[in-house]
From TrEMBL:
Belongs to the peptidase S26 family. IMP1 subfamily. PANTHER family: MITOCHONDRIAL INNER MEMBRANE PROTEASE SUBUNIT 1, PROTEASE FAMILY S26 MITOCHONDRIAL INNER MEMBRANE PROTEASE-RELATED. Pfam families: Peptidase_S26. This is Mitochondrial inner membrane protease subunit. The gene is IMMP1L. It comes from the Eukaryota. It comes from Gallus gallus. One of its GO terms (biological process) is signal peptide processing. Gene3D superfamilies: Umud Fragment, subunit A.
Length: 166
């Protein structure tokens, strides 16, 4: 009887470890569901919207300008942030705020991206902490899941004029 119970327990633990590994790989490499908070991506993503983030793009270096990404915060590694990619390595980007009279520009260094929130007046982004290392990107947001009346692919950036193709 003890041997039977021990066998069932070990079999259960084996299945638990196997399915745990499968779940880890799915969430690490395929994607997952993310709840967004904060006003920095309004009007595209509202606070408490639920989105699906796929993680394959970061592994294959196929992040493009205009993509919305989930990134480990450069100022707080325990939290993730949601921002739009404005510039890739080598791109010329506007580093000043929209209200600044004189506009300043800079080039994104190798291995980095330039991120900004869609709500430029209420966003802490690369204009504050500079270019973000590509390695901090966790995934690319594909579509919005919740609220249901807004289900589907995300709309284009309201700040498309900030993408410089010089």
């Amino acid at each position: 009887m003890f041997r039977n119970a021990l066998g069932k327990t070990l079999r259960f633990l084996g299945y638990t470890v196997q399915y745990g590994c499968i779940a880890h790989c799915a969430f690490e490499y395929l994607g997952g569901i993310v709840v967004c908070s904060g006003p920095s991506m309004e009007p595209t993503i509202q606070s408490s919207d639920i989105v699906f983030s796929e993680n394959l793009s970061r592994h294959f270096y196929s992040i493009r300008k205009g993509d919305i990404v989930i990134v480990k915060s450069p100022t707080d590694p325990k939290s993730n942030i949601c921002k739009r990619v404005i510039g890739l390595e080598g791109d010329k980007v506007c580093t000043s705020n929209p209200s600044d009279f004189l506009k300043t520009h800079s080039f994104v260094p190798k291995g980095h991206v330039w991120l900004e929130g869609d709500n430029l007046r209420n966003s802490t982004d690369s204009r504050c902490y500079g270019p973000v290392p590509y390695g901090l990107i966790r995934g690319r947001i594909c579509f919005k899941i919740w609220p249901l009346n807004d289900f589907g692919f995300l709309r284009a950036s309201p700040n498309g004029h900030r993408f410089l193709d010089d």
